[in-house]
Amino acid sequence: MTQGTVTLYTDGACSGNPGPGGWAAILIYKGQEKELSGGETMTTNNRMELKAVIEGLRALTRPCPVMIYVDSQYVRRGMTEWLVKWKLNNWRTADKKPVKNDDLWRELDSEVSRHTVYWRWVKGHASSEYNQRADALAVAEWKKIRGESPPE
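RESULT FIELD:
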């Protein structure tokens, strides 16, 4: 990593799949932290995982190196293994089916293109303090949508 790298932790959560969902991103740069979160009334966990990374990257005002920590193999493998083939196949999978969530994959591809991105996978609900915080923020968003009180 180079000096000036932004660290981005993201997570998505859903109550039911589909159902109300939330996403969260935590940006860290030179000791400063910024938390972002939001939600949708009817969505899926995978869509919220993608949305978290998109919104985290969108919050960056200029191109920079970004270390992205995700607990979603769907997002990490999509960006590091599958995306190039999907684009070559006109947004079709290897078995010729349309790529699910292609609208968000296209947005994410556009946001990533502005930066130098490094992908890291972390085990969800494990030892990463920031992953756990992102998860809590995402869960709080879907709970808000369902009308549940946030935890004290």
